[in-house]
Amino acid sequence: MKKVFLIVTxxxxxxxxxxxxxxxxxxxxxxxxxxxxxxxxVKYSNSAMYFVIVNNSTKADTLLGAESKxxxxxxxxxxxxxxNDRMGMRPAGKxxxxxxxxxxxxxxxxxxxxxxxxxxxxxxxKIDVVLVLKYGGKIKVKAExxxxxxxxx
Amino acid sequence: MKSKRHFPYFNCENITALEYRSDKKxxxxxxxxxxxxxxxxxxxxxxxxxxxxxTNYNLVDQKNQKVVFPDFVKDKxxxxxxxxxxxxxxxxxxxxxxxxxxxxxKKENVENVQFVSLSFDxxxxxxxxxxxxxGIRNLDLSNWxxxxxxxxxxxxxxKKVGVLAVPNDSTVFKDGRKIYYxxxxxxxxxxxxxxxxxxxxxxxxxxxxxxxxxxxRLL
Lengths: 153, 219
Description:
The complex is a heterodimer of chains A (153) and B (219).
Chain A: H1 2-29, E1 31-38, E2 47-55, E3 61-67, E4 71-82, E5 86-91, E6 95-97, E7 101-105, E8 110-117, E9 126-133, E10 137-145
Parallel strand pairs in A: 1-10
Antiparallel strand pairs in A: 1-2, 2-7, 2-8, 3-6, 3-9, 4-5, 4-8, 9-10
Chain B: H1 17-43, E1 50-51, E2 57-61, E3 66-69, E4 77-83, H2 90-107, E5 113-119, H3 127-136, E6 144-148, H4 151-161, E7 165-172, E8 178-185, E9 187-191, E10 196-202, H5 208-218
Parallel strand pairs in B: 4-5, 5-6
Antiparallel strand pairs in B: 1-10, 2-3, 2-6, 4-9, 7-8, 9-10
Helix pairs in contact in B: 2-5
């Protein structure tokens, strides 16, 4: 009797894990990270990463933060305008990504900030970053180091 | 009897030859006046915002060489921005725009223009920090100088040019290093050959076409 109970419990537990993993995968595959790039930076200084999160699902998600071994600390920040022509920067907190929409991280706005980069970020380098989402889980991103694309280019 | 003044636009029949000639002269005069007004209004797009006059500042460049500013750029058009190298977003954006302006001028063979970037965080931005900041971005320093110096001097320069930079936040790293983040004026400035500030632009969103056209008009 004990054996049957144990088997049933294990079955329910494992099927729950499989279901959760599948759900996780489905959500994750509907979230795409596009055009990830980061600014050049000298070792111990700071850099910023930009990208676009595309949420193709019908469910909203939330960006909780970012992780990377490429810097001492990694935070989600935003540049803000103060008065007429002054600019500053502050932590952006958790950011919602609405269903069937995009959230853009762009120069002068939201960015993932690398504080104290572990090595020089040279042009063409690829920086490994993990974006942490509430439902989408952890998404690995490679950001290429380069200067910003501009309309003049 | 003195004849009444006639306006040819309304009644051509009443014009005498003399009146016609004087009206023609009057119209010519109007044209000249219009040209002068147009010229004046174009010139007014470059009012003098501030001028250095005889005031000079002792600073150092990215090679740690002494530089007397603005004396060292005398007789040159200067494109200048104000930065701190720990700035991750706005200052690199402004610096990249300076690079785009420099590339454009080079492409169009526009000479006698000097680029200057002044740090308002000299306690962190040593000449070496500035040299590495420029180096990692592959900037062409043939006509671009990065400046730093004593805090009292860099503060005096930014005060003179109307730039504000206030520490807003800081990060302390595990090894005790502390860096500051500033709320600061986002600016690229155009200075003429006589050390007069002629126009301010937003550094992060500057229109390259606009400043290139302005430089050509000032040359």
